[in-house]
Amino acid sequence: EVQLLESGGGLVQPGGSLRLSCAASGFSLSSFAMNWVRQAPGKGLEWVSSIGGSGFGISYGDSVKGRTTISRDTSKNTLHLQMKGLRIDDTAVYYCARSLGIAVINPFDIWGQGTLVTVSS
Amino acid sequence: DIQMTQSPSTLSASVGDTVTITCRASQSIGTWLAWYQQKPGKAPQLLIYMASTLHSGVSSRFSGSGSGTAFTLTISSLQPDDFATYYCQQNNSPWAFGQGTKVEFK
After folding, report:
1. How does pLDDT run across A19-77, given as a tens digit for each residue?
2. Per DSSP, what are the bridge partners of residue A20?
3. How many CB pairs under 8 A join A and B?
4. Residues in chain A whose Cβ is within 8 Å of chain B
């Protein structure tokens, strides 16, 4: 079964760091582009970052650019999102999502259940 | 960056109705548009991509149309399971989402 399982969320103080992980099963990360999308409480969806199936084609949303790094460990079939300099407005459920193909220019067909990041003092 | 604007923000409807949601892009995106459904506490689910292609397993009651800057999602014969929030998304960097349209019971 194709599945994504996020982990790593939690409570962090403003200015702190956090590393989110997304374990993929049922498919290889090398064959699909992957993405992070977040949703603040009661708000809409906001794209955060993407990486191509080849490992290239990395991009970030303006709100996280310079503070966030997307990466993957193909040996463990796991996607990561390293976040630093966290702000109150980074509080959100973070979803990882698979693209419908190896290229980043594809919609997101498989989503994880999300992991909650709360930035608060 | 391209901005995506959905209307209406909320739509009240009854079971059996046909409803239409509109999504406009601030500049032409061809047919690089997807639609998602999200239920409370759940992850979004892909419904339609390339503006009009129905994703595998999605009911044919959902249909999409449009190109350039104007797109629509139509749900025919609304079912109880269809009451949810719907988002459009342009499929090119940056992957902007619309603000969402909540379809609620009238």
Report:
1. 999 999 999 999 999 999 999 999 999 999 999 888 888 999 999 999 999 999 999 99
2. A81
3. 58
4. 35, 37, 44-47, 50, 59, 61-62, 95, 97, 100, 104-109, 111-114
